[in-house]
Amino acid sequence: MNLEQHVTHVEQQISQEESRIQSYLARTTGRPLLDVVYTELIVTPAPSFPAKGFTDALYRTPNVPLLGRLYNLFEKAEALPLFNTMFYEEILILGKELIKDPGQDRDMIQNITNYRETLLKLVQTSFNNTVEIQRMQTRAFEVFMASRGSMPAKLLAKSIDLVLRTGNTRMTDVELDNKLDQMFQLFRFIQGKDVFEAFYKQSLAKRLLLSRSASYDSERVMISKLKRQLGTEYTDKLEGMFRDMELSDELTKQYNDKRLTPLSFDLTVNVLTQAYWPTYSPALVQLPGEMEKALVDFYSFYNNRHSGRRLFWQPGLSKCSVIATYAEKAKEFVASLYQAMVLLLFNDTDQLTLRAIREATGLDSELLKPTLLSMSTTKVNILIRQSSKGTATQEEKLNEDEVYRYNPMFRHTNVRIKINALQLKETVSPAKTCLTFRCVVTIRSKRW
């Protein structure tokens, strides 16, 4: 007998007993008799209900009417504490199943969100939305999400990042706000809120610095949700990141207005208060001549306005837009500064060895390898990588004497092409203020 058949059987038995009591027994005798019926048909067999279909009715194949009928029977039996415990245990079991497999981490947050939305409807429509049933649901979510340690916090921050990067292109403002609200509800259940903050801050930094944010308004909505939940101390650094971006826009305008000789490229400078932002490992590079002059010039401009402050330049956070002139048509490459530095070397030559590129850019192996490989793959073959055996594959180890050649036959359906950015390594090294560049390099008289 499955759960629905059992519930129907109990309802029929109760109805028959009530009819007999009304016809033949005194009222004082009726209630004790019904208590025995409820005990034998509801309370005693309750442990078998999950196997009979209670688990499936909760989530796998939600059955709102059936669960409502079952809840009413437990209520009449005055056994709601037993029902609440059974509800809690089943939420826990199903929740752990949703998050236990690392292979499903990509869909974890969406699966938990769907799970919670399904349970909310059941709680509101079938279980009278009681305070106790809500408390059991909250407690179960906290326990099963804690079973994967800090992973749910990390994945929640990444899921929110994905929505804030692309949400407005696929959703209306109302849909986006509802989506963020659903995800934020999960934030209440995670234990590692400091872990979430670290990953959220890292993602927010990339959205702001790399211009990946779909909407500043949506970003502020999310921060306001965090502030309401945890207070201003939790969100002060996040809000400081936005203040830095606004002040940097004003500072860049003042710098460009002050210059007597315009640069040959458009320049945007971000001055970041290090206390607010993630800290990245520093790198020493050799900039192309005009970029180096612009950097020194900006240092002078900034120090004249803010004496006593120190700037630490972070080339790993800088990005460029490089206009490339081909015979067919011009292309725009959205590149990291490291990628742009390498591309500009090929303005004056058709080929360079890895050793020559290293010496010209100052990039160490850890940075140079992914930079070169990102531009010499079959997907984006702006450069052609050659070894002594001919065209090299991405799997082959780099060596100092291999050659990289300019590819005049480069083809791509898009005019604007994003070259995969490098992953920046985070450290805890202290710094007061750091500096990043965003520039559009347009040298149409040459190759790039």
Q: How many β-strands, per DSSP?
A: 10
Task: Tell me the fraction of residues in β-strands, as a range.
Answer: 5-15%
Q: Tell me, what's the shape?
A: elongated
**N-end to C-end Cα span:** 75 Å
Class computed from helices, strands and strand pairing: alpha/beta
Low-confidence stretches: 422-432, 440-446
Work out the helix count. Answer: 16
What is the mean pLDDT?
86
EC number: 2.1.1.37
Protein name: Cullin-4A, variant 3
Keywords: Methyltransferase, Transferase
Describe the structure.
This protein is an alpha/beta fold and 448 residues long. The protein has 16 helices and ten strands. The strands form two sheets. Strands 1, 2, 3, 4, 9 and 10 form a six-stranded mixed beta sheet that branches. Strand 3 and strand 4 form a beta hairpin. Helix 1 packs across helix 4, helix 8 runs antiparallel to helix 9 and helix 8 packs parallel to helix 10. The protein is elongated and about 105 Å long. The N and C termini lie far apart (75 Å). The C terminus is likely disordered.
Q: Which key features would you list for this structure?
A:
EC 2.1.1.37; methyltransferase; Cullin-4A, variant 3; six-stranded mixed sheet; single chain; transferase; 448 residues; 10 strands; disordered C terminus
